[in-house]
Amino acid sequence: MSEPRKVALITGATGGIGRATAIAFAKTGRYDLALHYSNASQETRDEIQNTILALAPSPDPDTGATRTGQTRVEFFRADMGGYASVRELHSDVAKVFGKVDVLFNNAGSTLGYQGVKNLADIPIGIFESTWRVNTGSAILLTQLCLPAMEEQGWGRVVFDSSVAAFTGGSVGPHYASSKAAQHGFVHWLAGNVARKGVTVNAVAPALVTGTGMMGQEDGEKAKAMGERLPVGRTGRPEEIANTVLWMVETAYLTNKVITVDGGMYPY
């Protein structure tokens, strides 16, 4: 008997990690995808959709595979810096898909401030804006998606954090503090909803290429940074995506922040 797909909402889905995660979920044939973007072009969205549909399994009429129909992919635009826009995002996704089963809070920003050397170089307004984009909007979206998860007794929430939440990182204090705030929320919410069939976790990557977080993408600087890691290289978006999928499909895993960082941080 075929099993209906679950709906996965991925924010920041046109970036490196978001795109790779959407593809990883699609390959299983078990998820329909609600993909958030902020300013990606139609060309970029079409390319992502075509890639996903080409890689997603097709229904098997002979065996009655564990999926129903073709993978559905829909894009939704929202400004994660505005709570009204986040509410509209949830409303739009609910109108199309009915509910969200899996939420990957992946969208994030440095607001253009990277490699900060002095606290005085970051206006307090940048702190507040960064927290809103990286943490506040993710918490609000979780709050909006959670009732349906609790009602059906199954749900998954994953945050895309950063090793900077543990180490301070190299981007700046605005970014590190916004990611650290996610961890406190994960720990509180995970304990609150564990008996309701909802798991809450975070993945904390470091030095992943193709994300726009290292400045000079895939250049000599990034290569040199990767060579300092125990594994001797930077990470790939697909490696983060596979971790997120593992988190979603492992019901016994909750209240965890998993670093995927090439051995940079020991916990």
UniProtKB/TrEMBL annotation:
The species this protein was found in: Recurvomyces mirabilis
GO MF term list: oxidoreductase activity, acting on the CH-OH group of donors, NAD or NADP as acceptor; quinone binding
PANTHER family: 3-KETOACYL-ACYL CARRIER PROTEIN REDUCTASE-RELATED, SHORT-CHAIN DEHYDROGENASES/REDUCTASES FAMILY MEMBER
Alphabetical list of CDD domains matching this protein: SDR_c (cd05233)
One Pfam family recorded for the sequence: adh_short
GO biological process: fatty acid biosynthetic process
Source species taxonomy: Eukaryota, Fungi, Dikarya, Ascomycota, Pezizomycotina
Key words of the record: NADP
Family: Belongs to the short-chain dehydrogenases/reductases (SDR) family.
Name of the protein described by the UniProt record: Uncharacterized protein
